[in-house]
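QUALITY CONTROL LOG
STEP: pairwise intake check
CHECKER ROLE: data steward
CRITERIA: each record must contain a sequence immediately followed by its structure tokens, with no blank fields

ENTRY 1 OF 2
RESULT FIELD BELOW
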Amino acid sequence: MGKVRPREASKQETRDALIAAATTELAEKGLETASLDAICARAGFTRGAFYVHFRDRDELVVAVVDRLLTKFFDAVIATNDSPEDLERTVKQYVGMVASRAPAVRGTGGWRYHHTLAACARSPALRDRYAALQQEAMARVTKAAHAGQRAGRVRKDVPARTLAEILVMLTMGINVMVDLEIPFDLEGGARALGALLAAKTRKKA
């Protein structure tokens, strides 16, 4: 792989800075209040630089959510084609929620309700968010398949169905965390592990 040329690296750094600034500005001030001028000022660039990378503000918001979700999935979903991938994925997600800390740095205070509000406002973002969740389901499906092949994950439920259930569970948990509704995360994780585990046959 060739080295990234200085001009290309500079363009990527500008784009990254605008996305990071937008993430913080939108989280702090909200989708309706955060202005494009404020985002550019926080990033240290002009509107001219902004329009080199994004058609409009909505495209920037799509980039923000895309970046955050992609980093989140990369940090949480185990994709080593290992029999333990599904168990490791659940453990990593539970650990992130238990610590009440972002799964990755650079979230700028962005929370799940910011994503939902942005999706309600932008059809383009809603489509991209749905596509990212489908990608997550595909990755979790692969992890479930690996566990099923090794006899660690139950086989009476299709791997895709298990993945869909798990992704839907994360959405519900994210809402509860945002609303600060108390729940037994560790107990739920243990119960989930038991539900996912392959059933052992009882000796006669």
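ENTRY 2 OF 2
RESULT FIELD BELOW
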Amino acid sequence: MTKRTRLFLGVASGILVAGLGTGLVAAYVGGFQNFTLIGGDGPAELTYVPADARVVAYADIRNVMNSEVRRKLSAFQQGTGDGAAHFKEQTGIDLETDIDYVVASSSGMGEPSQGDRPLVLAKGRFDEVRIEGLIRDQGGVVEDYNGSKLLISGEKKLAVVFLEPGLVAIGGAAAVRKSIDTKADGSNVKGNDEVMRLVRDIDDGDAWVVARFDALTGGRLPVEVANQLPPINWFSARGFVNSSVDGQLRVETRDEVSAKNLQDVVRGFMALGRLQSGQHPEVAAFLDTVQLSGDGKTVSLSFSLRPEMIEALGALRAQRPAPRTTPAPTPAPKPDGAPAL
């Protein structure tokens, strides 16, 4: 596989990860990788999301955990069970059963700084006393903020607050405080007509994200790709997850000329991928499902990851060699009469 093919596949994978995962939840509890919204104007928890949010997503964890896709992929994953077990041992949270759904948002640009971590709202069943004890044991402090008990963990300044029974907010201290204020004063994202217009267009999927394009991709795209992209304002993605993953990526450009230019760029990458995927039939099969369309300033890309493709990709992942571990050096023998340490 040539460097240009690897670049194409890397960009495609990056778009899928950005669109269907966004990385917001995985930063806190590994394993949340798909987002979804159920119906209408979104969940009630959006009333905690500030109106200036630049990225908004929702995850139906129960549906994703119970999907056939997840069961297929888990059969090929190596070493992930240890992390989930350790997380449960520390927090009492079973990622398989205790999380129902998750809302995630960010008002920042690009990579979150220490003081600008994204906000994650998780609905489920939590042992509040145990989690507070864990944070205190790790040097955290407790702060009263507008009647809410804010738990701030050590040097990372990661804050946790139980907003309602079964609803916890996790994020940077500034983001969590802002969510409390947002709920109190009513200035939430549901009043942002531009964001909610996009949410209503995609909220029937099992996976979605709406974002300002620069907030989602800032600094993450390879320079040679970023230089070819015309001006893009908004990005949205939705997916349907069960035995396959069927998705749609939608981009709103600055004008119709930018939309046409973007379609040309995407066609070029797709043609390159088809030419150089001869030794990778699973990639060729995926590209055959990709459909590109446009309407005015909007460009849409639909795709399908079918069961046989998922199994093939999972098998390739399982064939990767396990990371090497360096054995601890053997201590040198002590000279006669040396004191024991």
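INTAKE CHECK: passed for both entries
DESCRIPTIVE NOTE, ENTRY 2: The longest helix spans residues 256-275.
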